[in-house]
């Protein structure tokens, strides 16, 4: 089942249960997916990799908004954003633990013979491809930086 179909089914459930937070976040996801689909020319659809990137972007936006609200002491608005990000995360692949990410990055460093920060770009490119959707880019970057310095 395609992601957009899963989202549509979840929207129907949220409507029946009158769950406004889920409904709002699912509609935002569906809107973003449909927008990406129309920008690509419509019928071909969006690849799974692009879907994951869209979901990650939406989660990141919600987290950034929540941080801003928290800094302004608007906890009620921050809670909404945090809840929405949790709902969207439910459609992302299972995230890897830090130790699993470190293991893969260590393997990549050994495989390429990288030894210092000059090789960070090469390792980041390979790690981002290999860990796409399963790890946050910031986490990958921090681990690569720690391993190479």
Q: How would you portray this structure in words?
A:
This protein has 149 residues and is an all-alpha fold. It folds into two domains: 87 residues, Orthogonal Bundle (Hypothetical Protein Yqey, Chain: A, domain1), CATH 1.10.1510.10; 51 residues, Arc Repressor Mutant, subunit A. The protein is 76% helix and 0% strand. α2 crosses α4.
Which key phrases capture this entry?
149 residues; mainly alpha; Hypothetical Protein Yqey, Chain: A, domain1; Arc Repressor Mutant, subunit A; globular
Topology readout:
Blueprint: H1 3-17, H2 20-40, H3 48-71, H4 75-89, H5 98-112, H6 120-130, H7 137-148
Helix pairs in contact: 1-2, 2-3, 2-4, 3-4, 5-7, 6-7
Number of strands: 0
Helix content: over 70%
CATH superfamily of the largest domain: Uncharacterised protein YqeY/AIM41, N-terminal domain
**SS field, number of helical segments:** 7
* Number of domain units: 2
Low-confidence stretches: none
How would you sum up the global shape? Answer: globular
- Cα Rg: 18 Å
Distance between the termini: 44 Å
CATH class of the largest domain: Mainly Alpha
pLDDT averaged residue by residue: 88
């Amino acid at each position: 089942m395609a992601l957009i179909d899963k989202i549509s089914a979840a929207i129907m459930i949220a409507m029946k249960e009158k769950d406004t937070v889920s409904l709002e976040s699912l509609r935002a996801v569906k809107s973003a997916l449909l927008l990406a689909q129309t920008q690509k020319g419509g019928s071909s659809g969006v690849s799974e990799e692009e879907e994951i990137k869209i979901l990650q972007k939406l989660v990141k936006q919600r987290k950034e908004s929540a941080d801003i609200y928290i800094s302004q002491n608007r906890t009620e608005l921050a809670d909404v954003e945090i809840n929405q990000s949790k709902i969207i995360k439910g459609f992302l692949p299972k995230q890897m633990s830090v130790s699993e990410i470190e293991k893969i990055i260590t393997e990549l460093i050994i495989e390429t013979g990288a030894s210092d920060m000059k090789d960070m770009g090469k390792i980041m490119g390979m790690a981002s491809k290999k860990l796409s959707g399963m790890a946050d880019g910031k986490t990958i970057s921090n681990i690569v930086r720690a391993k190479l310095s």
